[in-house]
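From the methods appendix. Each design record in this collection lists the tokenized structure first, followed by the designed amino acid sequence. Records were kept in a plain field format so they could be parsed without special tools. The example shown here is representative of the layout used throughout.

RECORD:
FOLD TOKENS (250 positions):
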């Protein structure tokens, strides 16, 4: 079953999303997925849609929203802040816990790229039942303030990212969330996945995340997969690894 849903976040903005629910049963473990930078709830070439449908066939609900300023949700891209993303994650999780399709004690937080960085940062705050990180984009933090200040020194406060307006203020806000210290304190089970051909998130970044989780992190790689797991083989392996991780948590 697929449902279009809307929620109002703490700032009064409408977030629009999709929920995938298994056909039989009630109170399912529910995965809340966070999309990446310039992304949306469907993912690159609809990978999140594909995965949500796959997981629904195996007894897991999935919740996917466009973050504020992205996709079909209220706001413009230039209105987005990393603090706001963290607030949206918390608001979405709190909403999910109240829904009759979800087991409120088994909310699983997931994210890819910037969404992985945000999910890891939010995890100590929202304390999900489990955490899944796909190529978490911690690297966007390094040098973010310097890049913003260099632009501002030239009188530039906004960049054009293929038609999206990206303000330097985003990086000033992002600077408050050093990725690894911000992720400390979450003690639940973690699945961490990286493609070996990912040219945006390196192996060292994933090992640094792995070291935070007190031996509770399963770090897996998919041979030849890129940052977006953009092949039929990579998608199948990603689904397989997720299901192997999630099934014992039912």
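DESIGN:
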């Amino acid at each position: 079953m697929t449902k279009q849903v809307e929620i109002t976040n703490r700032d009064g903005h409408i977030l629009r999303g999709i929920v995938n629910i298994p056909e039989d049963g009630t109170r399912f473990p529910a995965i809340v997925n966070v999309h990446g930078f310039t992304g949306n709830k469907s993912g690159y070439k609809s990978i999140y849609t594909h995965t949500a449908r796959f997981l629904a066939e195996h007894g897991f609900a999935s919740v996917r929203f466009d973050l504020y300023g992205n996709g079909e949700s209220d706001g413009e891209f230039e209105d987005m802040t990393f603090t706001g993303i963290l607030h949206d994650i918390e608001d979405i999780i709190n909403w999910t816990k109240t829904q009759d399709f979800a087991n409120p004690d088994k909310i699983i937080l997931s994210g890819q790229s910037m969404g992985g960085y945000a999910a890891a940062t939010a995890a100590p705050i929202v304390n999900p039942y489990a955490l899944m990180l796909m190529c978490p984009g911690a690297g966007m933090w390094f040098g973010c303030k310097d890049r913003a200040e260099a632009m501002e020194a030239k009188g530039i406060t906004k960049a054009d990212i293929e038609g999206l307006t990206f303000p330097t203020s985003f990086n000033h806000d992002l600077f408050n969330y050093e990725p690894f210290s911000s992720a400390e304190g979450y003690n639940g089970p973690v699945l961490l996945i990286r493609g070996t051909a990912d040219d945006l998130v390196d192996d060292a970044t994933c090992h640094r995340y792995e070291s935070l989780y007190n031996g509770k992190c399963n770090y897996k790689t998919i041979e030849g997969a890129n940052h977006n797991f953009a092949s039929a083989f990579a998608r199948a392996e990603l689904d397989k690894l997720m299901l192997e991780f999630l099934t014992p948590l039912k």
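APPENDIX NOTE: The mean pLDDT is 97.
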